[in-house]
Amino acid sequence: MNDAPITWNPSPSKPKLKLPTGATDTHVHVFGPTDRFPYPETSKFKPGDAPKERLFALHEMLGIDRCVIVQSGCHGYDNSAVADALAARPGRYLGIALAPHDISGAEIKRLDGQGFRGVRFNYMSHLAPGAGPDELRALAPRLADAGWQLLVHMEAGLIAEMAPVLAQLPCPVVIDHMGRIDASLGFDQAPFNALLRLGQHDHIWLKVSGSERSSVQEPPYADATPFAAKLVQTFPDRTIWGTDWPHPNFRAAPPDDGVLVDLLSDICTDDAALKRVLVDNPQRLYNFGNSV
User: Would 110 be classed as within a structural domain?
Assistant: First the structure.
């Protein structure tokens, strides 16, 4: 039994916004259950369980049909908890693994068979460090050959530094959580302008999740949603969205996922934009299998 505090809101509200058929949450995690999938001793954080059953119930309530589960650092390189969740929703739920930079082609093929479609590297001070530039250059061709993508979770101050490497990679690159920009610094801040420049490359995708993390305000995070809206307007065919459930390492009480869904009314200007961000773009990037 895991007695650690949960990181998710146990009573999320039902969103007012009706989502289109095929709506996709491209960024969630699962934690445990730790009696089946224990955390390694080396884990930097050991949150309360956030099992697949809770995730599935949340998505049913929110009106989400498809999903990408991103392996969390609390489970390290053992992707078993995610694989277990993918097996319960084959084709509709896909995964992003954590793996060493020298992951073999055989291991990529094995994980691909379980429903994984990429790897993630973290460049955040509270998480294990990601691969260096030369390691990314060596890995990216293997990802491209497999039809995989690279997720990059980095502090805003690193965007300009990492952009020259990311811009040259041969595989799709997804920038998580809007590059973790600080909404209080406004549109003219250097990190956001660096993100806009990086997004000009056709293989760069922007995930307009994390308004609650970029914000310095209380819900509904009105200072942060204009940044997400700007990215959707600028890159209409390469923006995707996610809830970031179960909201690990959040600065305050767990966000209300229904509120996060309703933010899409401000992020997407019309139904066509909403469908692109939630349905069409994720389908092109991930090639989900089963129809909904």
Answer: yes
C-alpha dihedral sign at 71, 56, 93, 105: positive
Quick: pLDDT tens for 84-125: 999 999 999 999 999 999 999 999 999 999 999 999 999 987
- 87 lies in which domain range? 24-286
Here the tokens at position 158 are 């690193």
| Structural domains counted in the chain | 1
State the Cα–Cα distance between residues 255 and 273, nearest whole angstrom.
Answer: 24
Is 205 contained in some domain?
yes
199 in a structural domain: yes
CATH of the domain at 95: 3.20.20.140
Can 280 be counted among the known catalytic residues?
no
Residues near 283 by beta carbon (within 8 Å), at least 6 away in sequence? 22, 24
Catalytic residue among 145, 244, 257, 271: 244
Query: Each residue of 31-73: pLDDT tens digit?
Result: 999 999 999 998 988 999 999 999 999 999 999 999 999 999 9
Q: What is the mean pLDDT of residues 251-257?
A: 94
Do residues 94 and 117 make contact, with C-beta atoms less than 8 angstroms apart?
yes
Question: Hey, what long-range contacts does 169-172 have (CB within 8 A, 24 or more apart)?
Answer: 169/136, 169/137, 169/140, 169/203, 170/140, 170/141, 170/144, 170/203, 171/140, 171/141, 171/143, 171/144, 171/203, 172/118, 172/203, 172/205, 172/285
Q: How far apart are CA 34 and CA 74, in angstroms?
A: 11
11 within some domain? no
Q: What is the pTM of this model?
A: 0.96
